[in-house]
Structure formats: structure tokens, C-alpha cells
Amino acid sequence: MSEATERAVLSGALHRSPGSESEPTHTELLSTERKVRLGFAFALACLAVIGVVSYLSVVRLKQNAAWVEHTHQVLGSLELLLAAATDSETAERGYVITGDEDYLEPYRQAAAVIDSQMRHLRELTADNRAQQLRLDSVTALVTERLAILRAVIDLRKDQGFAAARGEILTGKGKQFHDRIRRLIGQMEDTETSLLKEREQRTKQSSALAQAVIFGGGFLACGLVSLALWAIRRDFAGRARADRALRDAKDQLELRVRERTAELEKAGEKLQAQLARLHLLHQITRAIGERQDIQSIFQVVIRTLEEHLPVDFCCICLYDPAENCVIVTSVGSHSEALAMELAMTARARIEIDQNGLSQCVQGRLVYEPDITQVPFPFAQRLARGALTSMVAAPLLVESKVFGVLIAARRQAHSFSSGECEFLRQASEHVALAAHQAQLYSALQQAYDDLRQTQKAVMQQERLLALGQMASGIAHDINNAISPVSLYTESLLEKEPGLSPGARSQLETIQRAIDDVAQTVARMREFYRQREPQMTLLPVDMNRLVQQVVDLTRARWSDMAQQRGIAIETRTELAPELPSVMGADNEIREALTNLIFNAVDAMPNGGPLILRTRVAQEQGVPSQESPVRRFVRVEVIDAGIGMDEDTRRRCLEPFFTTKGERGTGLGLAMVYGTMQRHSADFEIESALGKGTTVRLSFAIPTTPAVGAAAPATASAVPPLRILIVDDDPLVLKSLRDTLEADGHGVTTADGGRAGIDAFLAAKAQGNPFPVVITDLGMPYVDGRKVSNAIKTAAPQTILLLLTGWGQRLVADGDVPPHVDRVLSKPPKLRELREALARCWDAQAS
Question: Alpha-carbon distance 744 to 760, whole Å?
Fold first, then answer.
């Protein structure tokens, strides 16, 4: 109702009808009307004052908010300035270490960023003399720091790594960087203090506005009530005017309440925005203090769970090669739900099947009600009583490397402001994680370089490498197990194979055996030969021909792809005596020598493998007869080696191939020769090629092979349960055992294996034999063997594992296992184990 309408209603209420019994005099009417007018005029004046004061309070509130935003801009520019200075130093370190010009691009970009941020900071702090002075100092230090970085880069270009490294180790650059960091820290502390002061003023302005609005409203209501009381006193009998006045009062109060509600809502929106800005600043500072990517992810997730808040939160890394995301970090409050949803650390989520393709393309995805989304991932979250979800991409340099997932139990519970906040938070997290990865990579490169320098002087480093390599033995043996089983089965059960196909399968079988032996021997490849090492007669001519066939792809096909021709020929001595050795180790040594020879001939040329019988120089006697050798020579026509390279070529980690080489090839060959008590010679000169000679002693007594193991009795067809988490291993074992007449049931994991065994036992038809893998997630082979032997002690239990030899050697065989077999399994060993365990049980 407008003011004119209110006045008309009130005016009409003041005039009685002519027939009224107690009609007031004209003077009384004028007096009453004057009172009413004065009262409403005063009330309107109060409302005008309230409006003016409210407007001024809102203006002051906006000004304070603008100063808060100004302070955030200064803090953001300071962080960008420090990050650019750090990037320039990181680029300089990367270039000094690698010599790669690509590492200088961040240095050049950092210089431009520093210049722009300096100008921006000078504009932002123009009203603060103290900050201007600090900025002058920062400018001088950054300029001088960039000059030092430029000098180190020039040293690296002109004088090489050692000169640049010496300049870095003076510590001058670190001192300047620390002084820059301290000055920027002082400026950030000053701006943070200003931010707190300005936020306090903003809160005071908001509180004042609310107090004026509420106080003025109550004052206006009081004045209106007073006017109504006066009118009621003067017009006690005029009900119509009283009703009109009450209507005017109700409408006025309604407008005041509506206006008050609007102002309160605006204040709440502003407070929420300020709270999110503060939370974003808090996250930025927290992750800026960390260099570990997992620590960054955890602090972000914990902050979102506590302060946003959300019911479930995790961060996944994107694997474009596998087209999936892998859960990396889960919030502490979300761990129970993560177990229920099967989204614990390292869980895989396929992209195409779960509607995350838009997110990995760089777009934020918000699903207000995921119960209506048909994708499996959304349905998985819905099973955990989660209803709304936001997926924000972690984007760096236009590339998505991860996804931040936040979900709540209530549908439509993420506001647009919260979605925008999560997008901004993901940008900060992505930048910090990228910086942490760069720092980690640089630190790792530095650590590797330092460890390598130490390892050159210590042969024990090779043992550590062997121990490290043994950690992947399980995966490698799992991968080659199906190939081994199927190859052995084909050779045994397919008599109609052509000679060429049988020869190729035998080559595959030898290569598989070599891989298995290499994996088992990696941690001991530089030790002296141990007493238990088995030596068998080796036909060196046959071994050389096998190596030529195995390496044909390297010296023939791959060489032809590069447009070069390598002519490989063998010169094998007839009737060459056998020597005692491990054929797989010698085969591996010869393979390494051929690979080195191919690498040494970038323009192609002849490669000769020669065998012959040689004898040591000297006059024989009865006490010391002349020793005879089988000598194998690998001769190339390559670039050769100078004297310094030839002297150092057997050192571990020494290589002339750059990033393509490990520096372990010749060291492994040398270790093999030591274990065989054989001689190792290298003859080489620049431009004249290289000749490597391996000399194996011919035994004085004829070499005989190992005695064949006693055969076990035949095994009747059995019901066998196979437990393994690798589907290819399951299938290959099932196929080979079923071919022997056994009935086979498979279980893809420890829990499934226990359930299948107990179910069969409950039905009165238990499995007499169980073959289980050792390394499986959640429920491993030890737990499977314990559960099965507890339920049925008479069950034959075979443990199949890539760590079989190590378990036996270390005495770590689980107590409930009847026999341990190594991967890749051999049919003969598997049949023998079944037979011996069956005979032992029968007896």
C-alpha cells in the first residue's frame, strides 16, 4: 500500500457519518488529524533516516569487502611471485643436471611472470609506504637472483656440469632465495594483518547495518503503535478507522520484515562468500607449506570434510593410457564409507563406463541427484546413501591429471557458490600437486645422482639392486606362468608339431626359463658362486646358436628399421668339448654382449660369434698339466673404446649410452664369469671395434649330466580347487590340469577360495587338493591355507608363488602348506608335487 493510499484510508477513518451519536467538533477533528499527520511524518522521517543509515552501512560494507578483496589480490600476487622465483630456480637446477634446453622454458616464463607481478604489486601497494620499501628490496634481490641463475646457466653451457655445480654449492643462490622468501613472508604477514583488520571492520559494518535496521524497525513500529493508541483514544467508537489503521500497520510491518529479511539474506550470502574465501586462503597456505603430493591431498580432503562440509571426499589420479582414474587419497571421515563402496586407495574406476569423461576433459561435473544417473559409478555412490556429487578436474597446463570427488547424502545440496569454490580449490590443489611433483622429481634425480656416485665405489650396491628387483618377481612370474604352462603342454601333448614349430616353442621355453632364473638371481648376480649352485654340461656351440636366434630381432629387424645392416655369422669349432656351467646364465651373458655389439655399430657392419679350443701358455708337467679352455669370442666392427672407457667399462652403472643404458650389462657378464671361475677379456680401440673373450675351463673328467629324479607314482584323477587373483594363471592351470584328467574349480581371490572350499565341504564333497597363490589382496595365501587346514587337515595344500625359492631358502614356508612351488610352474614339478603329496597321504 502506497503512502497516498495510507493517508486516504486514515483520512477516511477520521470523518464520522452525519448520523453518528458522538460526532466530534471541527477543532477536535483538526487536532486529531494534526496529531496523526505529525505522528506519521515523524515515523516516515525515522524510516528515511533508517534508509539513509542502512544505505551508508551497506556502502561501507562494500568498501570494506573491496579492501578485503584487495588484500587477497596482494597475497595472491606475492604467492605467484614466490612461485615464479622458485620455478626459475627449479628450471635452472633441471638444466644444470640434465643439460636439456627444454628445462629453460619455465625459467624464461618465470622471468616474465616476476616482471608482471612486480608491476601489479607496486600498483596494489601504492597506498602502503612500508610495503613499497619491502617491494623495492624484493625487486633488487629477485633481479640479482635471476642474474645469478643466468650466470649458472651460462656456466653449464660453457664449462659443463662440474662448473655449474660448483657455483650452486657456494650457497649464494640459496641465501638470496631465503632472503626473498623472508621479505615476501614479511609482506604476507603485513597483508594478513591488514586482512584481519579489514575483515573485522567488515563484520562491524555488517553488525551496524543490522542493528540500524532492527532498531529502526522497532522504533518505527513503536511510533506507529503510539499513533494507533492516540487514534484509538480519540476515535474509540470508530471501528472502521481502527481496522484501516491496523491494516496499514500490518502492511508496514510486513514491508519492514521483508526488507529486514532481504538485508539478512544478503548479509548471509556475503558472510558465506567471505567464509569460502577464507577457507580457500587457508587451503592455499596449508598446501603451500608442503612438498609431498600425498600430504597435499590429505590436508585438502581433511579441510573440506571439516569446513565445507561433505559426507564423502576423495582424490583420484587419471591414467590416460588405461582410461581410468585410480583412487589415491580418501578422507579420514570417509574411510568407512570408502570400504563399503570399494573405493579405498588404489581402487580403479573406469572412465567410459561411469560418466567421468567430461570431467577428465576439464569440465566440472555436478549431479544434484545421482539416484537418477544410470552409470555404475553413480549407482555405487547411491548404495552408500550418497545422493549429490561434484567432480572437479585437477587441471595443469590444460591437462587433467586427477579428479576431486565430493558427495553429500542430501540431494540438491551443493549450491552454485560451493561448486565454484570446489572448482577454484581444485585449481589450487592441481598447481600445488604439480609443483610437488616437479620438486619430488628434481629431488629424486639429485638423490639418484648422489647414490649412483657412491655406488660406483661399492659393489654391495649390486646386491641392493638385486633385492629391489626381487620385489617385482611375483608380478613377472605371474605374467609368464601361462606362457610357460601352455608352451610345455604343447611340446608334450602335440606330437604332430612341425620341426620348425617345435624348435620355436623350445626357444620360447628356454627364454621363459631364462627370465625366471634372472628374476630369482637378480639380488645375487654379483656374488661369488654359492655352493648349492648346480653346474651341468653345456654345449657351447648349441648355446651360441640359440642366442643368435633369440637376438635376431635386435640385430636384424630393429637394425633394418633404422636403415642399417648388421651381418651376423657364427664360426663354430667342430666337436667342441662340453663345459660345466649354468646354461641360462651363460646365455644371458652372451645376449648382453650381442646387444652391446649392436649398439656399438650405429652404421652397421659384421658381427662374429666364434668358438674354439685354446690352452694356456707354458710347459706342462706332471704336477701342473696345461689347462685347456673352450673360448667364446664376440667380435664387432664398431666404434670401439678408448683406454679410459675400456678400464672402467666393468664398473657398475658406468655407461656411454646416456639415458638408453643402465651401466649393468657388462657388470652382470663379469659377475657370471666370476661365478663360473671363467676368464673375461676385452680387446678394443677407437675406430677398430671390440673383441670380448670368454674362456671356460674344460673339465679333466668327462662331464656328465645330473641324475634324473626318482619318479613318483601316478596320481588318479582328483578334484582340485585353484585359488589365484590372476585370471590368466587360473585359466592356464585349469587347462593343463584338466588335460591330465583332473576336475578343476577356480576361485579369483582368497576370500572366494575359502568360501568355495567350505561350501563344497558342507555339501559333503570336499576338495582333496587345493593350489593357492601367496600374494593376493585382502586375503592372502597364508590365510587361505590356515582356513582350509583348520576346516579339513587332511587336504593336500600346494602354495604356488613367485617367491617360492626365497621362501624355502629363508625358512619362511607357512606352517599349513604341504609343498611350495615357484612361478612360473612346470608341469613336471606340479605333477611330481601332487604325486608325492598323494603318496605321503596314502602311506
Answer: 13
Under a CB-based contact definition with an 8 Å cutoff, are residues 433 and 404 in contact? no
Look at residue 770 in the predicted model and tell me its pLDDT: 93
Segment 418-445 shows an average pLDDT of: 81
107 vs 95: CA distance, rounded Å: 10
Q: Alpha-carbon distance 119 to 533, whole Å?
A: 72
C-alpha span between 99 and 720 (Å, rounded): 59
CA 745 to chain centre: 37
Structure-block grid coordinates of residue 708: 634324473
pLDDT in tens, 688-728: 899 999 999 988 765 554 444 445 457 788 899 999 988 88
Sign of the torsion formed by the C-alpha atoms of 179, 183, 188 and 189: positive
pLDDT band at 377 (very low <50, low <70, confident <90, very high): confident
Q: Which residues contact 648 (CB under 8 A, 6 or more apart)?
A: 654
Average pLDDT over residues 208-230: 74
pLDDT surpassing 90 at residue 378: no
Please state whether the predicted TM-score (pTM) of the whole model is above 0.90: no
Q: Please report which helix (H) or strand (E) contains residue 224, including its range.
A: helix 172-234
What Cα–Cα distance (Å) separates residue 422 from each residue in 403, 404, 419, 662?
Answer: 11, 8, 5, 44
Distance separating alpha carbons of residues 570 and 447, to the nearest angstrom? 44
Spatial CA neighbour of 488 closest among 505, 507, 501: 505
Core vs surface per residue 282-316: b (16+ CB within 10 A) or e: ebbebbbebbebeebbbbbbbbbbeebebbbbbbb
Average confidence (pLDDT) over 117-130: 84
What is the rounded average pLDDT of the residues 326-333? Answer: 89
DSSP 290: -
Torsion angle in degrees (nearest 10) through CA of 219, 224, 229, 230: 110
Q: What is each CA distance from 680 to 230, 629, 632, 657, 677, in whole angstroms?
A: 121, 12, 10, 22, 10
Residue 783 CA to residue 778 CA, distance in Å, equals 10
* 3-state SS track over 326-391: EEEEECHHHHHHHHHHCCCCCCEEECCCCCCHHHHCCCCEEECCHHHCCCHHHHHHHHCCCCEEEE
**39 within 8 A of 82, measured Cβ to Cβ:** no
Provide the residue count of the chain. 843
Q: Which of 525, 515, 420 is nearest to 463 (CA)?
A: 525
C-alpha cell at 374: 544410470
Q: What is the DSSP letter of 768?
A: S
Contacts of 650 (CB under 8 A, 6+ apart): 666, 667, 670
Q: E strand or H helix at 782, and its extent?
A: helix 781-791
Residues whose CB falls within 8 Å of the CB of residue 2, separated by 6 or more in sequence, listed in order: none
Residue 399: helix, strand or coil by DSSP? Answer: strand
DSSP class of 15: P
**Is residue 773 a contact partner of residue 785, using CB atoms and an 8 Å limit?**
no
Among left, alpha and beta (phi > 0; psi -120 to 50; other), residue 296 is alpha
CB 753 within 8 A of CB 776: no
Q: What are phi and psi of 614, to 5 degrees?
A: -130, 165
Q: Distance from first CA to last CA of the chain, Å, rounded?
A: 107
Give, for 675, the enclosing helix (H) or strand (E): helix 665-675
Q: Which residues lie below 8 Å from residue 345, measured CB to CB, with a gap of 6+?
A: 327, 328, 329, 330
pLDDT at 746 over 90: yes
Mean pLDDT of the chain: 79
* Burial class, 320, CB count within 10 angstroms (exposed 0-12 / middle 13-18 / buried 19+): exposed
Q: For the packed helices 583-599 and 499-521, what is the interaxial angle rounded to 10 degrees?
A: 90
Record the cell numbers describing residue 776, joined without a space: 593376493
Per DSSP, 620 falls in state -
